[in-house]
Design goal:
CATH topology of the domain at 213-315: Dna Ligase, domain 1
Number of helices: 17
Helix content: 25-40%
CATH architecture of the domain at 213-315: 2-Layer Sandwich
Distance between the termini: 33 Å
Shape: globular
Strand order of the largest sheet: 11-12-13-14-15-16
Structural class: alpha+beta
CATH superfamily of the domain at 213-315: DNA polymerase, Y-family, little finger domain
Oligomer: single chain
Number of strands: 16
Radius of gyration: 28 Å
C-alpha cells in the first residue's frame, strides 16, 4: 500500500478481485485476510537486484523500469536459444533457482510492451511461460478489459472509469471508436489510448540528432571509487543530457547507462520511463545500477568512464500551462536544496508531510521522501487535502483541524460538576455534562464543549477492532498571577481512559 491505495498485489489477491489503484478499505473488504506491506522502493530494489543479475547473465541488455519488472528485446536471445519458447524456458529455469521458494513470477513474450505485461501476468497464474503469436497482438488484446491500461500503461484510473461509463469496456471497443473520435474527446491522451489498444508502442519515435559526446560521456583521468563523487558527476551529465532534448522539443524515454572500471569490466543497463527520463530519474537509475554492481564485488570498483546513450527518443507533447502561478524561482531553489540534502544524507533522510486519509488524526498524514515529489506540488496538495479529500472520510472530525497533534497521548481526567469521572454509554451518550478537566493535579474548568464524536473501526476483527469517543472542550485555566488562560482541546476516551489528543489554536 502507498497513500492508502494498492500499488502491487499478488496473484492470489488478484483472484479475490484486488486491483492496483484500489483503496485499502475496498481491498480489505474483498479479502479480509489480506497481508499489507509498506511501500519501500529501496527495499524492493535491493531484493530485486538478485533477479536482475541472474537475467543479465543470459541477456546482454535488459531494461529495468521498476522493481519487479524486467523487459528486454527477445529477438537476439530467441535466435541464440532456438526460439521464443526455449528462451522463455531458460529464463524461467534461472529465476526458479535464484528467487525465494514459492515466489510468484511470470514470463510473457509478445510484439508490444503492453501485451507482454499482460502475458506475464497470465504466466504468473499458470506458472508457465505465455507466448503471444507473432503478428497476432492486436487480435489477442481485443478482448482485454480497459483496466489493463491503468495497471500496465500508466493511464489514470479516472480516465479508465470514464471509458467504462462511456461503454468502452474492452480494448476492442476503444479501437472501434476510431482514433480521430478519441483525439477529439481526450486530445493527445486519446491518440495514446488508441495506439495502446491496437498493440502499438505507447509513443512514436522522433528523429533527433544524438547529443554531442561531451554531454553524454565522462572519462576520468583518475579512477573514482567514491560513490557520492561519481553520483555528483552523473548529476551534471544528466542535467545537460535532459536539457539538450528539451531544447530539441523531445524527451528520452529509454537510455543506456554504461560504466567502465579500471580493470576493463563493464556494466550496461537499459532504463525506461514512458513519460520521459528527467535528470532526477536518470540519477536515481544510475544510483540503483551502481549499488547493484557494488553488492556483487568484494572490493571498491575504480570507475574510469560513464556514458549515457539515448536508445529511444520521442517528441515532447505540449501541455497547457496555468494562467497564473506555476513553478517559481523559490520552488526551484527548494527543489535543488532537497536534492542536495538527499544526496548527502540518503533518499529517506529528507521527508515531507503527505495526506493519506483516515479518521484518526495521527493517520491522516504520513512522512514520505521529499525527493519523490516536486516541491511545486506541495502547497496545492496540502490545500486540496484540507478542503476536499478530508471531507470524504465519514466519522472524521469537523473543520478546523487541530494545530498540534500528540504522538504520545497525555492522560487526563474529565469529570462532571460532582467530580465524578465522565462516562460514555454504548449509544455514545455522556453520563453527564463535562465540567472539569484534571491535568497533573491541575483543575481546569470546562466552559464549552462539543461532541461526542464516536469512532468504531474493524468491528469484524477482534484483534484489530477499535472503539473510542472524542470530545472538543474549551477550558479555562487560572495562572499563578491570577489571570486566566483559555484553550481549546480535543480529548478522547479509549479503554476507559481520557487523554488529550490535540490542541487547537
Amino acid at each position: 500500500m502507498h497513500a492508502q491505495r494498492v500499488v502491487s498485489r499478488s496473484v492470489l489477491a488478484m483472484r479475490y478481485g484486488v486491483q492496483v489503484g484500489m483503496r485499502r478499505r475496498h481491498a480489505q473488504a474483498l479479502c479480509p485476510d489480506l497481508e499489507i506491506a509498506a511501500f519501500e522502493p529501496n527495499r524492493d530494489r535491493r531484493a530485486f537486484n538478485t533477479i536482475v543479475r541472474a537475467v543479465s547473465e543470459i541477456v546482454p541488455l535488459i531494461e529495468v523500469s521498476e522493481p519487479g519488472v524486467i523487459v528486454f528485446a527477445a529477438r537476439g536471445p530467441s535466435r541464440y536459444f532456438g526460439g521464443d519458447e526455449p528462451m522463455a524456458k531458460k529464463v524461467m529455469q534461472i529465476l526458479q533457482t535464484s528467487i525465494v521458494a514459492d515466489s510468484q513470477f511470470g514470463i510473457g513474450v509478445a510484439d508490444s510492451r503492453l501485451a507482454a505485461h499482460i502475458a506475464a501476468r497470465i504466466s504468473a497464474e499458470t506458472k508457465t511461460a505465455f507466448l503471444v503469436e507473432p503478428d497476432q497482438t492486436r487480435l489477442w488484446l481485443a478482448p482485454q478489459t480497459v483496466r489493463v491500461l491503468s495497471e500496465f500503461a500508466n493511464v489514470s484510473r479516472e480516465t479508465i472509469s470514464l471509458l467504462e461509463r462511456l461503454g468502452l469496456n474492452t480494448l476492442q471497443d476503444v479501437c472501434k471508436l476510431g482514433e480521430s473520435v478519441l483525439a477529439g474527446r481526450f486530445g493527445e491522451l486519446g491518440v495514446e489510448l488508441h495506439r495502446l489498444a491496437r498493440g502499438d508502442e505507447q509513443h512514436p519515435l522522433a528523429a533527433i540528432a544524438p547529443p554531442p559526446a561531451h554531454l553524454c560521456l565522462r572519462v576520468f583521468e583518475e579512477p573514482i571509487n567514491d560513490q557520492q563523487t561519481l553520483l555528483n558527476n552523473i548529476k551534471v551529465m544528466a542535467g545537460e543530457f535532459s536539457e539538450y532534448f528539451s531544447q530539441q522539443g523531445a524527451v528520452c524515454v529509454r537510455v543506456i547507462i554504461k560504466f567502465e572500471s579500471e580493470s576493463g569490466d563493464r556494466l550496461e543497463r537499459l532504463w525506461y520511463r514512458p513519460q520521459g527520463l528527467t535528470a532526477t530519474t536518470i540519477l536515481e537509475s544510475a544510483k540503483w545500477q551502481i549499488e547493484s554492481w557494488l553488492v556483487n564485488e568484494s572490493i571498491h570498483i575504480q570507475i574510469t568512464q560513464v556514458q549515457l546513450i539515448a536508445d529511444e527518443v520521442r517528441t515532447d507533447t505540449a501541455r497547457q500551462l496555468k494562467l497564473w502561478g506555476g513553478v517559481t524561482q523559490t520552488d526551484e531553489t527548494a527543489t535543488q536544496a532537497i536534492n542536495r540534502l538527499t544526496e548527502l544524507l540518503g533518499s529517506s533522510s529528507v521527508q515531507r508531510v503527505k495526506w493519506q486519509g483516515g479518521r484518526d488524526l495521527q493517520d491522516n498524514y504520513q512522512l514520505v521522501a521529499a525527493s519523490q515529489i516536486q516541491a511545486s506540488n506541495l502547497a496545492p496538495e496540502i490545500l486540496m487535502s484540507a478542503t476536499t479529500q478530508q471531507s470524504k472520510w465519514r466519522g472524521s472530525l469537523p473543520t478546523p483541524s487541530p494545530s498540534v497533534v500528540y504522538s504520545d497521548l497525555v492522560v487526563v481526567q474529565v469529570t462532571d460538576k460532582d467530580k465524578n469521572l465522565l462516562r460514555v454509554s454504548a449509544r455514545h451518550e455522556l453520563s453527564a455534562e463535562p465540567a472539569y478537566l484534571l491535568i497533573n493535579k491541575t483543575c481546569c474548568k470546562i466552559i464549552s464543549w462539543a461532541g461526542p464524536w464516536p469512532v468504531e473501526e474493524k468491528w469484524w476483527d477482534i484483534t484489530r477492532s477499535r472503539r473510542l469517543v472524542r470530545l472538543q472542550v474549551v477550558v479555562e485555566k487560572i495562572l499563578p498571577d491570577g489571570s486566566s488562560q483559555i484553550q481549546a482541546l480535543l480529548v478522547a476516551l479509549e479503554h476507559g481512559e481520557w487523554s488529550i489528543a490535540a490542541i487547537y489554536g
